[in-house]
Amino acid sequence: MDNSLQRRTEFVSFDGSIRLTTVHQRPDRFRHLDNILDRKLIARGGGYAYSAASFGGKSCALEMTAFDRLLEFDPAKSVLKVEAGARIIDVLKWATRRGLQVPVVPGYPLVTIGGCIAADVHGKNPWRDGTFADWVRAVTIFHPDKGYLSVSSASNPALFEMTCGGFGLTGVIVDATLELTTLPATEVDLMFQAVRSLTEAVERLESSTEDFCYSWHDTAPGKSFGRGLVVSGRWIPGEHGDPLFRYRPMNAWTRAALPISLWNSLTVSCANELFYQINGRWKRRRRINLFDAAFPLATNGAYLAGFGRAGLREFQILLDSARVRPFIHTLEQLARRERPPLVMASVKRFQGRQRSLSPTGAGYLIAVDLLPGKAADRLMAQIDGLMLDMDGQPNLSKDSRIGFEVATRSIRHYATFAEGLRQYDPSRRFCSELSERIGL
User: How far apart are CA 440 and CA 437, in angstroms?
Assistant: First the structure.
């Protein structure tokens, strides 16, 4: 790639914890990829990963957002071929107008298709719908030493599995063929059920038959720890209006626009109490459109913006059914003893099938947000040990500090992924802050 297209750019992870200045290029022609320089690379989409998966001090970040076209559609098979820089919201809008849907969408509408594949994102009901990779039929990746490679689970299953949930380490995802499904409706009947603890939420999720279901919890230490709401929704049959997609776009920099954090023990307590009262008592049932159901953080951006420049910390851990309750019990004990700066928690029932770096298997995905600082670091170090003791798995896209030792012991397919990557790309042309941190 022409040196004139390079510039040095400061990047920041979406959680605000990692800042690096590195070489950055934004190709807008395929010939720019064909003429790429002999250096380390990593593809970048919207930059919504918490884990610095799309930039690194040793690599040139290739921002792929100019490659955003919807290429081909086969109505007989309901498959859509789309460039990797297209945003999930653009694909969703296109599909909705045709009575179709993307079955799994990430938590924010501006995540690119390439990002969805690289992180193998999940939606609001991964137990039923799986993860994004379950709906990817084929991908085209570019590797400077190999050219353009078209891979699928049938034609090259090993490389396909390494790419889905491989955080861009097999090459630049250029395009993808996605399977769409019929859109049941554009309106959702949303319900909030109050629960007294995370354990009670697990029991509710275990028996849920809703179209999507997850929970929210207040994590203030004390008697109210884990009090929360199980959020479930059903499509409203026959409703196929044109949903409104109204939100204020946010990126890693605008999320961190405030110089200080608005969240502290007092404001968190007040906000959680208000959220619980509004949704658990006053508005326990409501009708919303599919956009609000799929992307609640997009329409409630103040939550993330409130963390300011200091950012937030999050961990997401997948535990099987036999271990989730003991994990919750120990988490409650740690919260009472350490009184860490917890903000909120959530639980989803989960099913992952990939053989890469993403969580795999059945169980419950527990996510916890914290205010950054030494207390948070101490707690997360203890949580790492607890996760390893209980055979849990981390969601790398949401954790900006997991290192080599924890990664090798907790990621199910770490060893086979690392060996496959060594054989496929011995020169290791692709790397990021994340891959360096976990020893790949």
Answer: 8
Q: What is the pLDDT of residue 113?
A: 98
The residue behind tokens 């040990």 is 385
Categorise residue 352: left if φ over 0, alpha if ψ from -120 to 50, beta otherwise: beta
CB contact set of 388 (below 8 Å; sequence gap of 6+): 406, 409, 410
Q: Where are the beta strands (DSSP E) in 295-423?
A: 313-319, 342-352, 361-370, 393-394
* Per-block mean pLDDT, blocks of 10 residues, the chain (440 long): 70 96 89 76 96 94 95 96 97 93 94 98 94 97 95 94 97 98 92 95 93 92 84 85 78 95 93 90 84 88 94 97 96 89 95 95 97 94 97 96 97 97 95 97
This prediction has a pTM of: 0.95
81 membership: H or E segment, kind and range: strand 79-83
3-state secondary structure at position 166? coil
Closest by Cα among 16, 61, 47, 15 to 431? 61
C-alpha angle 209/215/220, rounded to 5°?
160
In order of their start, the domains of the chain are: 187-402 (3.30.70.2520)
- Sole residue written with tokens 């109050």: 194
